[in-house]
Design a protein that fits this description.
The chain has 270 residues and is an alpha/beta fold. The protein has one domain: Vaccinia Virus protein VP39 (Rossmann fold, 3-Layer(aba) Sandwich). 41% of the residues lie in helices and 22% in strands. The protein contains eleven helices and nine strands. Strands 1, 2, 3, 4, 5, 6, 7, 8 and 9 form a nine-stranded mixed β-sheet that branches.
Amino acid sequence: MANPWTKATLQDAKNFDKQKQISPYKERMAIKNEILWGTLQKYLPQDKSGTVLDLGGGTGIWSMRLAKEGYSLILTDISEAVLEWAKEKIDNEKLSEKVIVEPADICDLSKYKDNSFSFVMAIGDILSYCSDAEKGLKEIKRVLKPQGLLIGDVENRYKIFDGRRATSWEDAIRILNGGVAYWPDKESPAPIHQFTPTEIEDLLSAHKFQTIEMYPSHLMWGLFNEEFLQQAINSKGGLQEIVNIEKKMSKDKHLLGCGFEIQFIVRNEK
């Protein structure tokens, strides 16, 4: 069965980017991206002569940001229409010499040789959206060099009860027990694997990845009243205050299941 995400159109890709510029989603993404950028800067290779693999990189937000820092990348996605939009943006930014754009399914990376990359990104919940998370992780491990780093994230199963993924109490219980939610599209309800913290920890460990960091993403929206957060956003310096609080709170391992996503940085131990 074909992955339903291949059906994304060029207009879908443009809409993805447009949505990120509309409040309050715009502010949520700004906070998430600032925290994630700080994490990336800690672990990106100092040697920029190699190539970073950006899996499921969508419209190219992180590939372009890293390219502007001097890194060379391969940007992949399962949707060729999404990549078409990403390539247009990359060309407009004059980054085409730094970013190769090509389609690839995380569950089949056969176009890449074993031990090809020292740094791989699987950001944007790609392990939740792919057809087989375990197969995808095996493929990542194969192309990742020994001691290479993987940074990724997955959707958190315990946030289904806020209405983000479940449509009813019965649906929430089904997701809680089975771990599969669906993208809210009546014509093409694509499955999304919702991970518990223990599940993603065990999956990474089973494939001999050493966890360096694991923390909740979008934690403030998982814990705080949205009205209060909007008050902070509207105040002077409020966005940075939220960032600082989330950075501090995300270090508490007991809050790992409280964010919308679970982010991780792991090392490939072969």
